[in-house]
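User: When convenient, might I ask for sequence and structure tokens for a protein?

AI:
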Amino acid sequence: MKRRWNYNRTYALFQPFLICLMALSLFSSCGKEKIDSNGKESWQAELEAQLPLLGHRNWIVVTDMAYPLQSRTGVQTLYADAPYEEVLRFVDQTIAQHPHVSQIVYQDEELNALDETLCPGIDAFKESVASVLGKEAITYIPHEQLIARLDSVSQTFQVVIIKTNLLKPYTSTFFELGCKYWK
């Protein structure tokens, strides 16, 4: 007598194997930046893919590690496991390469009140930001006003947030995009 194939029995035998395979796949990618075929990390590739879609009234924000994950649909958060200065330089250069957008750069006004006694390493941070963007290119606005503007903008327009591993307060850099042809 020929034995018939039993789908439920076969599935029951392979189910634990499939679960283990899926778990291994999930855990093997945790905590690692994905690299695309051009050698770019996933946050870089994602920003480059998004930038042609972004225009005036969109924002890109480079933040420290403590910046909160926002739940609004108009906000996309990426994680860059890279030095803040490197991320800032990449964002600045990537925006500059696109012919349709310009930028207005903001930082928290509270950053100017921080010194080495309050926040060791903050002077080096300020110097590194100035070396990337130039001191005159930054407009300082109180933190709460910048957050309120982001909240308002994200109701209608896309905001891209790139979190870094920096651990210093009031160090977010906000890029408000404008139309390059008006510049």
Remarks:
- Residues 19 and 131 are 50 Å apart (CA to CA).
